[in-house]
Amino acid sequence: MLILVLTNGVSGHFDILLAKENLMPLSMAGLGEQFLIKKINGKEEVRRFLENLGFVSGAQVSLVSEISGNVIVQIKESRVAISREMAQKIIV
Question: What is the DSSP string of 46-88?
Fold first, then answer.
């Protein structure tokens, strides 16, 4: 995702600032790192299922461990086990 910001410079000209936002699926996150959820991908029923577990945009999340293709995630005050496929739908 590319963000374009225009600012009014001292000389009256507009300066262009570019910021690149790094997004990745939760399944690619490093163990113990804290992230904010940016988006949930997938079908409506999958998004609703993850939302009911607390996976919503703006929530803080971290990857606790990986076991046999599944991941344990810290979300809010709980630890939740989800499949790697579900973790790939959570964009941080």
Answer: HHHHHHHTT--TT-EEEEEEEETTEEEEEETTEEEEEEHHHHH
